[in-house]
Amino acid sequence: MEQVGIVQLAREDGYRFRIDFGLAGVQHLLTDATPPLGRAGGPDSERLLMAAVANCLSASLAFALRKFRNEDVPMRACVDATLRPNEAGRLRMSGIDVTLNLGVPAARLRLLERALAQYEDFCVVTQSVRAAIPVTVRVRDADGVLLRG
Questions:
Q1: DSSP reduced 3-state for 32
Q2: Cα angle at 38 between 35 and 40, to 5 degrees?
């Protein structure tokens, strides 16, 4: 078993928290709930989860591409999520939708199909979240061609 590390939160006021990730040289992050509870003075919990999923998928794809000597491929991610009430009327995330956009045409990448076939398995966060929330992922190249998803 491997420990991730300690993350500490301190309430500033209202629903705003300062997050210390315990990493030297990394600034603290302010979070806040969206109105009407908070003032949207930072990302809320939903956006943090969305960012974590998209970040992990992006890093996993970058890792898989590098395995096949595709160095420093530009990449952008766009992530959206839906909320729906559960049986008790409480909002829950009902889906996360991620699109990874590569900054080069697919033809310029070595062994792309092999990288695309395995990168999601490297993503600790997405595979963990999928146990509770459906996550759909699409990958497009610089020409907008759908490569996977």
A1: coil
A2: 75
Determine the length of the chain. 149
Its sign, for the CA torsion 54, 59, 65, 71, is positive
Cis peptide bond prior to 36, omega within 30° of 0: yes
d(CA 77, CA 16): 26
Residue 108 tokens, joined: 């310029």
The partner residues of 136 in beta bridges, in order of sequence, read 97
DSSP H or E segment with residue 51: helix 45-67
Q: Which residues of the chain have pLDDT under 50?
A: none
For the segment 30-69, what is each residue's pLDDT rounded down to a tens digit? 999 999 999 999 999 999 999 999 999 999 999 999 999 9
Q: Cβ contacts of residue 142 below 8 Å, gap of 6+?
A: 101, 102, 103, 104, 105
